[in-house]
Amino acid sequence: MSAVTRLFHFLARIPLPLMQRLGAALGWLVWWVSPSYRRNFQANVKAAGVAWRDARPAVAAIGSMVAELPWVWMRPHAAKLDSLVKWDGAEYFEAAMKAGKGVIIMSPHLGAWEIGAQAIAEKFGPTHGPMIALFRPARKAWLEPLVANARTRPYLDSAPTSLAGVRTLIRALRNGGYTAILPDQVPPLGQGVWAPFFGRDVYTMTLLAKLAQQTGAQVIMTWCERLPADQRFCMHMRPFDAPEMKDTNVSPEVAAAAVNRGVESMVLDAPGQYLWGYARDKQPRAEG
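The structure assignment produced for this chain is given below.
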């Protein structure tokens, strides 16, 4: 076991409310010591037209999200989330699953998305089988065992961002299963198109729309809100009924713009919990 893994195991034993408060302080520390992070954060908020008073809580929220990771990733598989997570809109997911064409969970970098993935798998897995989540492998070798432990849990399987992983997602959806995708993650070069997002063109994945168009799967907008009370979260689920998700004749750019509008609508519900520091408008990297 590496030193980092041992550290994560130790931190996972600290009560989650305390880690969240420490993380909030860490978020503000990074804000003050990193001018480049601060400029990028503020530029993204301004471009989105969001009032600073509404986005400001995200400085602390991002720190809380990072501080939650040891608990989220290393907690025993038998430790359930049901006492910590409330649900808003789970009936939309159930209705979509009954249609039999599969469900795509569209969950951006908003709120506690790592907890959200595990909560979905725990709640719906016993009835509907495992959720297949598309994850980019960790770029840092020391992170790989931690990430692998987090993303291979009961009723939660992961698929890599590769052709084999995409085939796994298609197969799951055609069998009436469900998958989760981060729609606002910058894809590798050649796997996206430029589309508007909060007034700026950003490189946007085409995969989500293609999966919906090819399989007929229902897209469900989902995000995990971190509530003010300690240790409490609320999962929000809403159907994403954009016609572009069903129309194979629309261009990739039009479909990607629709996906970005869906992400925008979720972010505007809770701008104080979005990952504003993420360089969403960066240039895509060549894979490999």
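Interim note for the steering committee: The beta strands are 85-88, 103-106, 131-135, 156-160, 178-181, 192-197, 200-205, 218-226, 233-240. The chain has a mean pLDDT of 92.
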